[in-house]
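pls ignore typos typing on phone
iron/sulfur cluster + seq
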Amino acid sequence: MGLSLNKVVKPQSNELNKRAILASNDQSPVKRLYVEGEKPNFSKGDIVDLLKNINKLYKLPYSLYKAVDLIKKDTAFNNDQLDQKTFNRLNELLEKLGVDDYGFFEVTPDKIFKGNGVPHKYALVFSSGMDRTEFETAPSIKCQLEVARVYYDTGNVANRVAELLQSNGFGASPNHSLGGQLDYSMAAEWAGIAVTGRHSMAITKKNGPCHRISVVYTNIKNLDVFINKSNDDMLWIKEFCKKCRKCQRKCPTGAILMEPVVLDGFNPTRIDYDKCCEGFTNYGCGICIKECPFTSGKYESLKGI
Ligand code: SF4
Ligand code: SF4
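k done
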């Protein structure tokens, strides 16, 4: 689309960095950015589809702008103890917004992308599913429109949760689904709601990798009284991935590596991000989501294989 995603997400990152109380350290991972200059090969039909779905696209930058505004407002907090009433309101809101699962973790410097920071010690993590039927067509403009829709939805979740928490006196800054200060796949794993698959995406029970994640950083100290998620019963996915390798075999650019490589001295990665970005010329690709058996939503039956 000729749109620089790196530039679009920069104001949010700048604002979070300005208010950071926790900064990255020497062991932090390097953030991999989208390679600039890669443009999808749109056909005339795709342009028509884009225009028909303009309502899904224009809301996305608006939600990023809103996130920046909420981060700026996150200054006057006087409460760090969640109560049952506010927790119930949070759950009602998440249900209304169609959030499939959520958890939290304590942020430490080694989890934050190098050169960045976050404004609070705890992170709430939200997962919202994408329509898997759209991914059956990947790579296609249809699945990229679905990605855009859910990027807006999850960004909106982070904004609405931050608003609710701020209005109850808590410190709360949204981190939109576009442009995390930390690795969102790992965030879902740390929060106990997913396990990271061979394709480096967070696999949840309900949606497999067919979902998007957003985060709210908060000062609430007693989240563990209300939220207790564990992915211990999902760790078998790591063994499943060792045998499966379907994403790796089907990836058109060879971006999913056989064995993890350590590029920064500390953090192993299985994805060659430059090669994956080559896939972006094919509408953003998404083939690894389409091919992953967990995208079917049949978590329990896969467990028996
Ligand atoms: S999005 Fe496409 S190119 Fe990137 S890792 Fe997945 S299958 Fe490979
Ligand atoms: S396609 Fe197979 S190997 Fe790849 S993440 Fe999914 S289950 Fe794991």
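DSSP finds 13 helices and ten strands in the chain. The beta strands are 22-23, 101-106, 117-118, 122-129, 172-175, 195-196, 202-203, 211-218, 256-262, 268-271. more later
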